[in-house]
């Protein structure tokens, strides 16, 4: 009986040591990722993007360029196969679909809060407290990769893979709750593009329909008693 007790105790200690070792490894990866992200204050790159279903079939592919200035300023421009522009001006998120001449505008914080974009665009994201992070082997000496899953049950993605070449963000892979995966590869990367202060302002062209979701939120808000 004493022997069985000793063996059981050893197994319990071993299990806890494995758990704590794993927790330390996750924390180290999270801090390392935070350091990588903190080096990106501004950014410009071309991109190619593919969306694949659960059977790895390509549903959509596109290309364009991405510009970023922390905090909360970015421009995502699709040039092929259709023209689309998504602009964050610090307060609002504008989505301009040129083919159908329609603009959607919404509150930026509400639109980005549970998306992967928040990790790249916010002034500071607490990776350690908000995400489970593991460093992933890539087989390439010059590529560092991190896999994240959000601790927020409302998050719009299940897993996010971020790849760096040195300090350069070179790829993103997002797996969502519907079984689809979005793969984005960046090229011609510039970490100091030197945007002017009005670069991320958005001006709607004349004659384009604007769907203002900010106004809808305000209209549905409870009215104060008179």
Main pleated sheet: 12 strands, mixed
Strand content: 35-45%
Question: What is the class in the CATH system?
Answer: Mainly Beta
The CATH homologous superfamily corresponds to Lipoprotein localisation LolA/LolB/LppX
Please estimate the helix content.
Answer: 25-40%
* CATH domain topology: outer membrane lipoprotein receptor (LolB), chain A
| Number of helical stretches of at least 4 residues | 5
Topology, number of strands: 12
Low-confidence stretches: 2-26, 221-226
Derived structural class: alpha+beta
In which order are the strands of the major sheet placed? 7-8-9-10-11-1-2-3-4-5-6-12
Rounded to an integer in angstroms, the radius of gyration calculated over CA atoms is 22 Å
Distance between the termini: 77 Å
Instruction: Give the domain tally.
Output: 1
Q: Topology as H/E string?
A: HEEEEEEHHHEEEEEEH
CATH architecture: Clam
Pfam family, one: LolA
Subcellular location: Periplasm
Family: Belongs to the LolA family.
Keywords: Chaperone, Lipoprotein, Periplasm, Protein transport, Signal, Transport
